[in-house]
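Milestone 3.1: sequence recovery, worked example.
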């Protein structure tokens, strides 16, 4: 039986280093699977690996005192945000180094691009616009974070946010449409 993540988060926030270690052990595989799914969308020459993405995200969570999250849902939201920011930072560094301009076509069904490369810097800019689009945009942003970056299913997100599957599907479709327009060539 797995330890309760919420209890481990509370103990880690209180300074219990063994709880932070145990938390990492408990969530590692789930985060690695989500990171692997994100990395599968990258081009073959991508230098970041799923394991490194998980470790970097966990380090950022610890360094930013984000281990003071309330519960499992809040933790996985924070982890998805950390992984997204790592990919954005990596993308910006890579784009700055090669000074090569390329545009992406977004596959509306998966938020992937046709050639399997995602310009996370452009996606980050589009997600910021979505977040700034009011309350509905904020909910759509959260759904994108959980489904695309967090790797959760529509059903898992519906359960986590305590809203219907139909609402999740509707908001997911609207978010994809918004992001597609923002990322069009």
């Amino acid at each position: 039986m797995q330890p309760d993540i919420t209890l481990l988060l509370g103990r880690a926030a209180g300074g219990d280093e063994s709880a932070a270690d145990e938390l990492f052990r408990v969530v590692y595989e789930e985060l690695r699977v989500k990171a692997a799914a994100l990395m599968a969308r990258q081009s073959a020459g991508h230098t970041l690996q799923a394991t490194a993405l998980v470790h970097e995200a966990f380090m950022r969570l610890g360094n930013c005192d984000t281990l003071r999250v309330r519960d499992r849902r809040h933790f996985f939201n924070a982890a998805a945000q950390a992984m997204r920011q790592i990919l954005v930072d990596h993308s910006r560094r890579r784009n700055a180094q090669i000074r090569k301009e390329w545009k992406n076509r977004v596959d509306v069904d998966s938020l992937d691009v046709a050639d399997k490369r995602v310009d996370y810097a452009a996606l980050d800019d589009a997600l910021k616009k979505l977040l700034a689009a009011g309350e509905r945009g904020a909910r759509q942003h959260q759904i994108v974070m959980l489904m695309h970056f967090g790797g959760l299913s529509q059903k898992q997100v519906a359960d986590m946010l305590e809203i219907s599957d139909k609402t999740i599907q509707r908001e997911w479709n609207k978010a994809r449409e918004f992001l597609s327009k923002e990322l069009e060539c």
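The beta strands are 106-107, 112-113. Helices lie at 5-13, 17-39, 50-63, 72-98, 120-131, 135-149, 154-161, 165-183.
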